[in-house]
């Protein structure tokens, strides 16, 4: 790879990406464009601008954007249409944010004439893969710089040294090593590393940042109604809201009731197991709601197909293949199934759990006429079941007859 | 079908199966053998014997058996190795009990020279399918009688009339219609019908029979440890227990903490949607524990394959194909994956939720050496990730290059 | 089911459907509308009109339509985008024609105010299922009459008697029983039954009706080029042709060279195995061509996903679920993959085989620069493979290390 | 990676691996053990011994082994139980040989105290991945040396120079570049590269080495019978033969009749497409035979599950994951399905095609009683089909009713 001339850096304004910024300038002597996005991580963005200026970035090279609506509308919601869970339990909060960041990095590179992008993900994790696969899928000629895989700043001491030598301000609490590593966006907060590295040890309480402990959550349940249209949440308690507003509100509600905590050991795409603590309050509520909505509006053939495709769909997102033909193929199938996933779901929120307790829809396929224990006025002829069973049994009978025949 | 001469009836001792018993005697004039099994439904079995005697069944034709250990060991546990959930949420508590009952019906028919078996499932539900597919798979020549699909006792009044005419004792609370229908065994209690038929209406509190309401559960969390060997639970808090004893104990613990309630609308195999309330306290705890155990002991390749096979496996059990070559094939694959699912999981039980908070195992694949944020002493070379990403990206780059080429 | 008043009958003009026509008139006393479609079965349609008139059908109740273009464009081609093969070998020639016939039956019922449709498929086969599932999926209130499941004309003698009593003309060669049963359309001809019922016995030569025996095919190979656009064949040897014209031409070519014969034992949806002889000359050529086209234009991620979905897609069509949400979901995924399946394939036709010998496309993903054994000018860095392998191997190493550890 | 001390080299005796041998000695100064296996590639092995001696390998460090029986019995046959085809067409002839070679390399390393293994696969292909994943799966601490990824002998000229400088004898025809690259074993011969690199150009005749051109094959068909036991071929025309003998004989028969040629563009695991010419005469015959055997002995539920698992199974083998938990899980499922795949298949071999024309088995599930067009003596009640269809149609009717309701 020839040396880059101009690099767009995914810049948080924090110590680590500030070090990367400076390192790019000194190591490659290249012009740096910073990109700071609000994906709902809950931090002010303006300090990032000030810091970028202070580190010598020209104003026109500082990009700060609020991507929350795009994030929820074009990434989170499509994923939730699939009821996606990685390895049965993880709601993919980190995974789903990466492709959007890469998309903007590549677009800004195009706009600013940059030939490279850079990110602050380490060489052990999944995020490097997600950032880079997305970038390459959108621009096959882009260069991607991953300083953590390249540089020799491999200990906290060296990083601090580099920062001091380069006049990068260091917040007091950043001198020492953080007790764990955090990633956050509108969908979730994840924590991993250090104090969490022994999967036999319970996570300390202070790790949880976004959800009340169930023990401290209100003693009374709260009931809410979520409205859906074509598979996406569109309202809460009758109030129509934008995608990001819905997720924000569900985060407040879920967080208050201690919903969405997950202590999880997962398999990284790069081959090792890692342990993370995930907090996905709004997403956990949303999944329960979406499932409840599908229960009455989704056909069983469609639903079972969706269920069988989901693990692969989730794996693709986890592994960083959002921008791939096969993810898009699966999305096309999933989206097709959502045309009638429209209606309202009633949920109970209480001490760590969101529970669907009612669903109603003009698109419902639930037929009380068919299922009733009462007289059904001819909706269903029970004698049909005899033929249904006989033909389903036919091959089993032939198998059993073979067993008998061969035993004789 | 020629008329049966001797029928083995799945007999609970209750009003409905007593009516069936008498109806078989009068309608077909055939000898009846009763089979009453303890699958953990929580009812005394001896009254069934007395009632059978009273209805004229000869003592040698009365079979009463405790199948709890066989049920958990050979049916429930193999199913839990798969983390089986039907339609993403249902633990299959009713489905998994049916094949065992059919197996014994067919075996008793063989022992007693009966040419038919009979069950009390209606023509609208899944259970008729499960009973009959299992029976035919085990004996292709067996006759199956499903009175609910045949007779004209299609209202409560007619049933009561028939009972009175035939001197079948009727408990006072059975004269009117039950407000909902119940099935129970060691794994779960299900309730459906009548007051539950509107999926928009929350289930009344009195429907729940086996689990404390989360609101009434203890205010303090309880922690337990479950030991696993090759995918099956073998101990609780260090005490080795039999399969049925483990599930019994987990039911107590889960029930006490309000764990395992599910309000669910599902797709029946016979084509309609139905709404059920399921209580699976021990099973819900067990699923969380098994998943926690797999997190550190199961390889990702094996785990992802299992995840992708699970929906089909669950559907097979739900639809009644336990005794089918394809269920056995999937079981062979799943069982192969469980060789190292051995160790101990620590769980928190609190107000409706069982949460894994720790796992340890001599068979662990979790490698702190690889995952650590600290120096890893060469366990993992971060530079390898660059090549890994490049080759994974290659096809995506070629796709992106095509897009560009064609746009020009 | 209340008695039908007006029935649309799928009418071939042959003896059997003429008997059905008369039986409907006499048994149900209902008005009959005949529908005769040209799906490329190679028979004149006008005799069907004359015969219908002769059997008392009013002219406005006689529908005769050429559906060949719709058949290929909207049914055959979408299916071939999937490379669909049932049980690994069968090109689904009968299965794919049924939903179109049902669609027109239901539409004509709507146009003519008929409340029922009728078909001539027997109660043992798949076609009854396909006809009826499609009909119900398009009109939930339609009645479907399947005379073969209802009447008592269960032997050839009775049928002939009924025909004679009702002045239905009987061609001489129809008095006796046919040595086997045939179904034909533009995609294939199938033969089954009677002389073919022993799967150990080779099919007699006279069964084959549409393809030259390979032994009698030309001794010189013939080469053709098929052009594709977005997954569908659009031209042969540079000449743009309509869908039906392409399939017709490929049938001539394939038939001449003895291509597309299949001697097959399959599993029917209704539970038994049956043996059929299929001749699908054009379809066999088309499948080979489409695969060749995909080889250079389809991404591996998309292709592998397609491959994994195909068996289920084929099963759905075979079982009669063309008009189902899950078939449409799969179609949406498959169609999405075909955007770039555009280009030209060169095929060799010789003595029973169609073989792709060349493919070219502006949409090709094949990169000689990457794959070459020669210098590749930096297109591919072989050292990347080391990292790729290391990370793919990581979990396998951890597994092997566990084995060692536990053995010690 | 620290320098290896003793290396086991997969040694063919040819120029390239002789250069590698010398390079290992000079570059790493390590002791070399050579391993030459007969997998049916059709070359004498003793010259490899002489050459190894000549290059200074000590006699006790020269391993020459006939692995043909193990290859077919433990690798080829298990794979054929799955009817494995990569990307719908490729019989995996190269892929399946690699894990066995790696297995022996690792075992010999263990026996000789070597700490490394080496192979002659390039950095662009799949074989490096297959060799190395297998090696690491069997010994997590083994070092693997892949000289083609490391050295600077990147042109033919440099290789020849190195050979001359190191007194490695060079056959005259090896001085120039081969017009294409060949791999062969008992299952297949593959050719790729150079003259084959343009996928639009037909492969020249001289590329085919193992199969007669169909045009030159006998003008009369030949019929053979293959006997199976539990999914594996055990006899030809009644003569019981060992696995390798069977494949050898089928290769002769298939080759003579021009069977098993494939001109193919495939997707490599490392990300690019490549074009190969494969000749798999015996394997192609075997696949057709195995499918024919399964047609009458395999249950549809088992068969459809197998079909759906096959693409993933084939991909695992292609990608080098033979020794992985998920391949073993799939194998367990597949093997379970083969218990009754026992009987005899009759095949026609003619001008490029093997065609099943008859199958018979004591384990047959084909029931003429059920399928017959004649009177079936009550084996099957056609009326059952009505109920079967009604219940399969129920959800489709509910869907159609929804459409209507919403349109109003």
TrEMBL record, chains A, B, C, D:
ATP binds at residues 10-18, 37, 120. It is an enzyme of class 6 (ligase). Residues 180-398 form the Arginosuccinate synthase C-terminal domain. Keywords: Amino-acid biosynthesis, Arginine biosynthesis, ATP-binding, Cytoplasm, Ligase, Nucleotide-binding. GO terms for cellular component: cytoplasm. Residues 6-169 form the Arginosuccinate synthase-like N-terminal domain. It catalyses: L-citrulline + L-aspartate + ATP = 2-(N(omega)-L-arginino)succinate + AMP + diphosphate + H(+). It is found in: Cytoplasm. One of its GO terms (biological process) is urea cycle. Pathway: Amino-acid biosynthesis; L-arginine biosynthesis; L-arginine from L-ornithine and carbamoyl phosphate: step 2/3. This is Argininosuccinate synthase. It comes from Roseovarius spongiae.
């Amino acid at each position: 790879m020839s040396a880059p001339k101009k690099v767009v850096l995914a810049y948080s304004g924090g110590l680590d990406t500030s070090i990367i910024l400076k390192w790019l300038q000194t190591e490659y002597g290249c012009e740096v464009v910073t990109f700071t996005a609000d994906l709902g991580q809950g931090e002010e963005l303006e300090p990032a601008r000030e810091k970028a200026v202070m580190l010598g970035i020209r104003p026109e090279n500082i990009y700060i954007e609020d991507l929350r609506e795009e994030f929820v509308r074009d990434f989170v919601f499509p994923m939730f249409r699939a009821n996606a869970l990685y390895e049965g339990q993880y709601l993919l909060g980190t995974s789903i944010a990466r492709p959007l960041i890469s998309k903007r990095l590549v677009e800004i590179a195009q706009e600013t004439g940059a030939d490279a992008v850079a990110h602050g993900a380490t060489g052990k994790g999944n995020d490097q893969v997600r950032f880079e696969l997305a970038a390459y899928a959108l621009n096959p000629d882009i260069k991607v710089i991953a300083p953590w895989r390249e540089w020799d700043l491999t200990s906290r001491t060296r990083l601090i040294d580099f920062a001091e030598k380069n006049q990068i301000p260091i917040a007091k609490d950043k001198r020492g090593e953080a007790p764990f590593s955090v990633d956050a966006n509108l969908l979730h907060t994840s924590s991993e590393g250090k104090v969490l590295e022994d999967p036999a040890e319970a996570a300390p309480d202070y790790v949880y940042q976004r959800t009340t402990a169930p023990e401290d959550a209100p003693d009374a349940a709260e009931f809410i109604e979520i409205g859906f249209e074509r598979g996406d949440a569109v309202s809460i308690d009758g109030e129509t809201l934008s995608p990001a507003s819905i997720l924000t509100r569900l985060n407040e509600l879920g967080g208050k009731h201690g919903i969405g905590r997950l202590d999880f050991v997962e398999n990284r795409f790069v081959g090792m197991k890692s342990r993370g603590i995930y907090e996905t309050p709004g997403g956990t509520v949303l999944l329960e709601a979406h499932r409840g909505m599908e229960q009455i509006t989704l056909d069983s053939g469609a639903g079972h197909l969706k269920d069988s495709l989901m693990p692969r769909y989730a794996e693709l997102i986890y592994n960083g293949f959002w921008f791939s033909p096969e993810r898009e193929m699966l999305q096309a199938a999933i989206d097709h199934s959502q045309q009638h996933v429209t209606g309202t779901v009633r949920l109970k929120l209480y001490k760590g759990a969101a529970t669907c307790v009612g669903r109603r829809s003009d698109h419902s396929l639930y037929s009380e006429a068919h299922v009733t224990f009462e007289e059904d006025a001819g909706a269903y002829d029970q004698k049909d079941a005899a033929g249904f069973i006989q033909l389903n049994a036919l091959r089993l009978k032939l198998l059993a007859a073979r067993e008998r025949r061969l035993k004789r």
